[in-house]
């Protein structure tokens, strides 16, 4: 019952329908690229406002999926991986850093700026192998440690949400730690956090290639240090078995 | 006829800042808040008015009860000044309640007042009036009893298709062989920038390890 000059192009959600006629799909192309194109380039949305609300559909009147503060509590920017958009281009469906893993929601394009991301990360659990590629070209292939049988690394599609630099590179998280949009499916909290999965270095390089973590993906410190130099937030991460 | 719209989500009140212009449409934008109040404002105006003004979110603003705060004010395109337009205002409140807040939309000699826009959760109010556009379009909020309101929204103009079709004069014979080429309705796509590498934040991770 409310009237919003909808962001959905012709799908003008208007209780006063009929008044003024159907609006033109006027022409506003927010996204210059086809997000659904099966290229290796994905679109990253970085928040430009202090808070971003995600809805269940491209309409502010629908239920909220989440409310996300910008910047993050750790100080970094709030980013999303864009997975779709509506016809008008004014609404973006994004992967959300919430439980359950794989949750998506719709955010308004006015709240973010968009950029292309040519990178992606693939993790093969059974092979204990992480691969970084740029538009199909493999840049890095490295052994990783993954979660144990009791605390497995979750399978699915995620993206990098944060890059943290611990005070000591010799700690359990190594020199750098990327946060993922995914969560452990067995741990609701860990080390003061809420079970967020990370890709990080390690002070136990001998553990690489084994199932020893609480769900995170451990890399050699040299590798995570290299990745921290060029990987953008919003980089998609596919974890498969 | 052209239809314009303005939407808003009131979570905290922002003041106007950082006005930018865009050749395609007109809009005033505020960041989406916690969804306390949403406002929609529409204009039916002649075609050709599509351009855009963006207003970035600012810090929350609070004031004494009764004080008037300009939420947005934008110039009306010269070709629209003096033109009759249908002005539609819709407000929808979310969960937060702030008694007595009044929304006022002004253009030219016309004033549209929507009272008690945040008096109850999920309230939805509508106004529709024919106005003559002035040189500016201004949206104001008068704070009510607790001196609190908050918002984020944008304003945009969209044209209705029928007004984009040239009027055919009575008795005129159209020659299909001489039909003028159509003009694309959309701007050509422009490339997105490539995302910058992440900048590391000094912080102790709390990931699952």
Q: What key attributes describe this structure?
A:
heterodimer, A: 241 residues, mainly beta, SH3 type barrels, L,D-transpeptidase catalytic domain-like, 2 domains, eight-stranded mixed beta sheet, five-stranded antiparallel beta sheet, disordered N terminus, B: 209 residues, Jelly Rolls, four-stranded antiparallel beta sheet
The main pleated sheet of chain A reads as: 8 strands, mixed
How many strands appear in the DSSP assignment of chain B? 12
Q: How are the strands of the largest sheet of chain B arranged?
A: 9-6-3-1-11
Spans of chain B of at least 5 consecutive residues whose pLDDT stays below 50 are 1-37, 42-61, 152-190
Rough shape of chain B? flat
CATH class designation of the largest domain in chain A: Mainly Beta
Q: Main interface pair? A: A-B, 87 and 67 residues
Proportion of residues in β-strands of chain A: 35-45%
Architecture of the largest domain in chain A in CATH? Beta Barrel
Distance, first to last CA of chain A: 46 Å
Rg of chain A, Cα atoms, Å:
20 Å
The CATH topology of the largest domain in chain A, please? Answer: L,D-transpeptidase catalytic domain-like
Write out the strand line-up for the largest beta sheet of chain A, numbering strands in chain order. 10-9-8-17-12-13-14-16
Low-confidence stretches of chain A: 1-39
What is the CATH topology classification name of chain B? Jelly Rolls
Structural class of the helices, strands and pairings of chain A?
mainly beta
Number of helical runs of chain B?
0
Shape field of chain A: globular
CATH class of chain B: Mainly Beta
Cα distance spanning the termini of chain B: 60 Å
């Amino acid at each position: 019952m409310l009237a919003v000059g909808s962001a959905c192009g012709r799908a003008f959600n208007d209780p006063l329908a009929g008044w003024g006629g159907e609006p033109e799909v006027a022409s506003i192309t927010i996204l210059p690229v086809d997000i659904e194109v099966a290229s290796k380039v994905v679109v990253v949305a970085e928040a430009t406002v202090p808070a971003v609300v995600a809805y269940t559909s491209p309409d502010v009147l629908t239920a909220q999926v989440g409310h996300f503060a910008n910047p993050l509590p750790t100080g970094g920017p709030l980013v999303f991986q864009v997975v779709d958009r509506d016809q008008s281009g004014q609404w973006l469906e994004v992967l959300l850093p919430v439980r359950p893993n794989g949750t998506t929601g719709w955010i308004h394009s006015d709240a973010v700026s968009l950029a292309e991301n040519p990178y992606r990360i693939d993790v093969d659990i059974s092979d204990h192998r992480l691969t970084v590629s740029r538009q199909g070209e493999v840049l890095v292939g490295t052994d990783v440690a993954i979660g144990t049988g009791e605390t497995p690394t979750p399978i699915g599609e995620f993206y990098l949400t944060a890059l943290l630099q611990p005070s000591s590179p010799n700690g359990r998280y190594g020199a750098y730690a990327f946060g993922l949009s995914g969560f452990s499916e067995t741990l609701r909290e860990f080390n003061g956090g809420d079970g967020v999965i990370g890709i990080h270095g390690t002070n136990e390089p001998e553990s690489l290639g084994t199932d020893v973590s609480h769900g995170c993906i451990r890399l050699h410190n040299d590798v995570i240090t290299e990745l921290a130099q060029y990987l953008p937030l919003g980089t998609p991460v596919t974890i498969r078995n | 006829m052209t239809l314009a719209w303005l939407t808003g989500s009131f979570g905290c009140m922002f003041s106007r800042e950082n006005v930018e212009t865009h050749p395609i449409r007109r809009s005033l934008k505020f960041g989406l808040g916690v969804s306390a109040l949403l406002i929609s404002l529409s204009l039916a105006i002649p075609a050709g008015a599509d351009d855009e003004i963006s207003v970035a979110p600012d810090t929350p603003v609070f004031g004494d009860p009764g004080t008037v705060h300009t939420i947005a004010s934008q110039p009306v395109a010269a070709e629209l000044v003096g033109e009759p337009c249908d002005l539609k205002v819709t407000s929808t409140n979310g969960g937060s309640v702030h008694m007595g807040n009044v929304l006022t939309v002004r253009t030219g000699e016309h004033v549209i007042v929507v009272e008690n826009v945040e008096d109850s959760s999920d309230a939805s109010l509508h106004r529709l009036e024919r106005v003559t556009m002035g040189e500016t379009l201004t949206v104001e909020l008068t704070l009510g009893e607790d001196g609190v309101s908050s918002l984020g929204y944008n304003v945009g103009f969209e044209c209705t298709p029928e007004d984009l079709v040239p009027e055919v004069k009575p008795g005129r014979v159209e020659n299909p062989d001489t039909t003028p080429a159509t003009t694309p309705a959309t701007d050509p796509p422009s490339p997105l920038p490539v995302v910058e590498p992440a900048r590391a934040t000094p912080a102790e991770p709390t990931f699952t390890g």
